[in-house]
DNA sequence: CGTTGATAGTTACAAATGCAACAAATATCG
DNA sequence: CGATATTTGTTGCATTTGTAACTATCAACG
């Protein structure tokens, strides 16, 4: 029987997080999708290469916590669209070093600027205290740091 | 060129939210998946019926912000597993009223209890102030109320 | 009534994902 | 060296999702 003192779905943290994540993802997705035809994983891979320089697929997997098949397919897509190139690592030919092309860097710069703008616009609706607490809580839940 | 005062991905709100949402979803997913073989959408639909009583698919779409095809398929799956039944509404035969079976209610009770437990265990790591702010911020971002 | 339009729900097809098997290169250790 | 195990990355297949088209019922209005 349904009790009355039950958890409201709107308070249930996984649900709240999912809805909030979906809402922001859909907003920002428009930017990379419309401008560059990218999917979310592709944008994440592009981001890592733009932010941290040349990486192997494996490194991106670890840093972004993405499965290797997802990364593999994202890299293929980005390569086809000329956003990155691969170069063999002579000392270990299992790895391929991934580097952004000029076009990739330019897309990264553009998207990052947009991301910052969007992030700031979301954050602007909160006080400084709220911002700090929100970030702290989310990082903890996401098991960062 | 990559600037230095750039946004850290770990601070980027959509990314943080996604990672946090994924982490909690994966945790809780185990419960409804292992115990009842449910998918996330099925759990959401079950939840709405358990929490709010009999509803039509359309009502669930609106309340849960789910697309009608997702709901349609979740209802089919829940019906096959005998968690709910449909009854035609005589005054408008386009709608079908969905009601949980005894088995559905029992799954709901069980899962809700587990959800509450999980929610509380997550929240327990935060102070009361942090909890309140976290919820407030997430609701706002999720465009709730 | 009867035509047109809206609504509830399903289905079909394409795209995206997850998982397991696979190939190729390297590491280990007798 | 040579057999076995590990690591990197890709591919194939089944599942899940999104979009659009479809069916069936009802509403509106002449």
What would you note in describing this structure?
The structure is a homodimer of 145-residue chains. Chain A is mainly alpha-helical and 145 residues long. Chain A has a single domain, classed as Winged helix-like DNA-binding domain superfamily/Winged helix DNA-binding domain (Arc Repressor Mutant, subunit A), CATH 1.10.10. The first copy, chain A, is built from six helices and three strands; from the N terminus they run ααβααββαα. Chains A and B meet through helix 1, helix 2, helix 5 and helix 6 of A and helix 1, helix 2, helix 5 and helix 6 of B. Chain B binds a DNA duplex (30 and 30 nucleotides) through helix 3 and helix 4.
Pick out the low-confidence regions of chain A: none
List the quaternary state of the chains. Answer: homodimer
Q: Approximately what portion of the residues of chain A adopt beta-strand conformation?
A: 5-15%
The profile of the biggest β sheet of chain A is: 3 strands, antiparallel
Give the CA-CA distance, first to last residue of chain A: 42 Å
Instruction: Kindly report the name of the CATH homologous superfamily of chain A.
Output: Winged helix-like DNA-binding domain superfamily/Winged helix DNA-binding domain
CATH class of chain A: Mainly Alpha
| Mean residue pLDDT of chain A | 93
Q: Greatest chain-chain interface?
A: A-B, 57 and 57 residues
CATH topology heading of chain A: Arc Repressor Mutant, subunit A
Topology as H/E string of chain A?
HHEHHEEHH
Radius of gyration of chain A: 19 Å
> So what's the overall shape of chain A?
globular
What strand line-up does the widest sheet of chain A have? 1-3-2
Count of DSSP H/I helices of chain A: 6
Could you give the count of β-strands of chain A? 3
Total domain units of chain A: 1
What share of residues of chain A is helical? 55-70%
Specify the CATH architecture of chain A.
Answer: Orthogonal Bundle
Please identify the structural class of chain A as seen in this structure. mainly alpha
């Amino acid at each position: 029987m349904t009790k009355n003192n039950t958890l409201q779905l709107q308070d249930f943290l996984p649900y709240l997080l999912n809805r909030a994540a979906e809402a922001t993802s859909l907003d920002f997705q428009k930017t990379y999708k419309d401008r560059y035809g990218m999917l979310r994983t592709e944008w994440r891979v592009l981001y890592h290469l733009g932010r941290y320089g040349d990486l192997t697929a494996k490194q991106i997997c670890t840093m972004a916590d993405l499965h290797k098949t997802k990364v593999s397919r994202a890299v293929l897509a980005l390569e086809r669209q000329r956003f990155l190139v691969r170069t063999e690592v002579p000392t270990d030919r299992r790895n391929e070093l991934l580097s952004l092309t000029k076009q990739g860097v330019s897309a990264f710069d553009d998207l990052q600027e947009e991301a910052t703008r969007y992030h700031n616009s979301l954050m602007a609706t909160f006080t400084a205290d709220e911002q700090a607490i929100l970030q702290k809580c989310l990082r903890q839940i996401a098991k960062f740091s």
